[in-house]
Amino acid sequence: MPTKATYSVLLPTYNERDNIAIVVWLLAKTFTARAIEFEIVIIDDNSQDNTQGVVRQLQQLYGEDRIVLKCRPGKLGLGTAYVHGLRHARGDYVIIMDADLSHHPKYIPEFIRHQQETGCDIVTGTRYKLQGGVCGWNFKRKLVSRGANFLAQTLLNPGVSDLTGSFRLYRKSVLEKVIAGVNSKGYAFQMEIIVRARAQGYSVGEVPIVFVDRLYGVSKLGGAEITQYIKGLLWLFVTT
Amino acid sequence: MLRIYRFAGGLLGLIAVWVAALRSDLQPDQYLAVLLAPVFFLALFGLYSVTSLIYGVVTFRTVPEEATALRQDIADARKDLQAHNIS
Description:
The complex is a heterodimer.
Chain A: E1 6-13, H1 20-33, E2 37-44, H2 51-62, E3 67-71, H3 78-88, E4 93-96, H4 108-118, E5 122-126, E6 133-135, H5 139-156, E7 168-171, H6 172-179, H7 187-199, E8 204-208, E9 210-212, H8 223-239
Parallel strand pairs in A: 1-2, 1-4, 2-3, 5-8, 6-9
Antiparallel strand pairs in A: 4-7, 5-7
Helix pairs in contact in A: 1-2, 5-8, 7-8
Chain B: H1 3-23, H2 28-58, H3 64-83
């Protein structure tokens, strides 16, 4: 897909030493194969496992114009990590995704193509529709996910099938404007961005993705996350 | 208009219709039916929700090939990274 646009990938990291090099390698491979201009902005919240050391090695390999490292003094939250990354991103479009290999860079060309074809402001990956799906989820996890999404659909009628997904492409100017008004934490944060973006008149497209739950390690979904989500959902119901 | 206002407006509208129906000229069994109508619709919605949920979970697409493909990609990446001396 011929494009002159530049794409900035924002990767907030905390202790992702095992995965970060692989993610960057896959991203570079995906973009280079299609001659797409890109940069990867890594926002590290003072990882204790030498994530930053690995990133510096990657900078040697790919160049500091391709791999940008922004360090923060501690775990300051996802929202502020995006804001911080946005300040240093040079691209016309911004891609956000998880750095733990649950989101595969191979889907990014699909995001780009969909955005080019429809001209929409945001493209979000969906696990629930079309060819989307998951890998590594048991019945209970699927039930929680569907339940959360059903609740969100009923209360917010958001116009997208997957509201809590975090694999997205944004027009940079749109994300900057929308994120300024977002307050939620956790899963509700991703929801709030979409709901507020639509309320402000921006268009959202969807592309199927497959989410591979951590091949290594355990993803966190406890009572605390669920309570936080429901609170965030109700707050959005009342304020948008 | 905020979602909550639209919701409250709609809800008030429905309540007004319901009260008007109750106050109109109804036979005793019709009156009971109108009185219980909200409960009936709530139960219907509950049933729809549960069915929707179960259907959603059962048809939730699982793609084991993706894990296999990812493992292969990780192996390729590791090999190339090691060749460039990246741990």
